[in-house]
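Hello,

I think I submitted the FE2/S2 (inorganic) cluster job twice by accident. Can you confirm which output corresponds to this input? Input:
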Amino acid sequence: MPKMPKPSNPLHKKVSDLPKPPMPPLPPSLRPNPKPKERSEVTVGEAAAAGGTSVVAWIDERTSGSGFLRGFLFRKVPKGVNWWYTLGSATMFAFIAQAFTGVFLAMYYDPNPTVAYESMRHINNEVFLGEFVHGMHKWGATVMTVLLFVHMARTFVFGAYKYPRELNWVVGVLLLMMTMMMGFTGYLLPFDQRSFWATIVGVNLNGTGPMIGPYLADFLRGGAEFGSTTLPRFYAIHMMLVPGLIAALIGIHLYLVAKLGTTAPPWVKAEIPGQDEKRV
Amino acid sequence: MTPEKETKTPKSKFTADRGWPGAFEGETVTRRHFMTGVALGAGGIASAMFALPALGFALGPIFEKTEHRSLLDVGAVEDFPADTYTPQVVTTVAGIGEVGKILLYIRKNDNPTPEQSWPFVAISNRCAHLGCPVRYIEAAKSFICPCHGGTYGFEGEVTGGPPVRPLDRFETYVENGRVFVGERFSVNSQLERVPTRDPGAHVDGFWQVLYPPRPTT
Ligand code: HEM
Ligand code: FES
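Support: Only one job matched these inputs. Its output is below.
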């Protein structure tokens, strides 16, 4: 009996048979080198040009950074990705803006309970552009939180939390909690009536948690009463502890996005190379 | 005849006998394993040396007993009649400005009971819901909270809103015609003294087991 030819599975096509993607728009110094010519074919002029080098190429030769950047920035994304996919980057941009403006606010702010309010008043009323930078930090906090929730809604609605991206959802939830912590600890810092009483209520809310709640409240206050260490404590958590954790978590979050690739929108159907799109 | 059952020889403790690569005669652990252990152990000890004290430094206040401050003089005995509350600001935490001050509502205790034998009733204005400042309204003989509508009667007992227990009180003492206040304490719905709790913590019925007294109070 003659052997039947095996039906070829289009999914088993070799990668080398697929059409080559176009070259990403890299600056010339970062493009992968073409195959070197045979030694005998190199002209004197070419050899001289290869001897000189640009700053970018100098760094690249010592770090191999271009390979990483090519893979990270020009990774393939599925058909149909749209503006909703930019929300994570927008959140990250808001975080960077917060970190940047926050560092400069820290140059004028004084977390001592007797002078904190006065130092904020000084920033707002006397420092050049102080009110503007403070305003950016204050409104930027809201912008970051809103963007974060819309980004979370996007990943939820698009089913991006499913296998294999569950861990990225978990990291995202940690980022959400850290961002809430930033809002809570930052709100006390202007030290006016509103921020003081809102923090009293917020700390006592923590205190109402059964069993560990009262200890949590003690931790936040640094004791049983709102005391001399409470404001510096909130300040240290707000400007060092939590931002460091957020930066590290964003690193993990982005690593996973690059490693796993982003999800296709749910309305885009799987496409098998070489097969009629309509039949799939 | 059945073949003799193969007895399992116990594995040798010498790496050389187990055929491990890089094994030396007479050693029971390879150098690579040993050095990995040493590096991890040394790194762990070095990290614990800074991490544990730093953690204790941050968490310490949870377990510290709050120091007893000295009694605070709040005024002359005649300043505080029995039929109404007289507000008095006292500084409980020195050196931090306005934040270290609290407001007490004080009146003479004209009806001392075994539970409340203090010569004066000193009621804290810290709401037992979440800690906002309550105000005494003479016309209603009530304490009213601005935050979530908690109301308290003349003895500080809850008459409405979300608070879970009556307003806290302070110990009072009289000496040479002056009134002094001591430590804060919480009271349950029978106005009996219980260990000090934070706002929001229950002190009555089953729920009090969820809010045990802490080292700091
Ligand atoms: C500081 C907060 C956050 C930052 C800076 C951030 C950043 C990003 C970025 C840049 C991406 C790439 C794709 C995209 O933008 O959609 C992404 C993807 C993702 N994020 Fe976030 N994110 C944050 C919070 C969250 C939260 C709160 C969640 C959910 C609980 C979450 C879940 C995810 C998931 C599941 C993906 C994968 C999406 C996909 O593969 O299509 N992220 N994130
Ligand atoms: S804090 Fe007083 S009612 Fe909520």
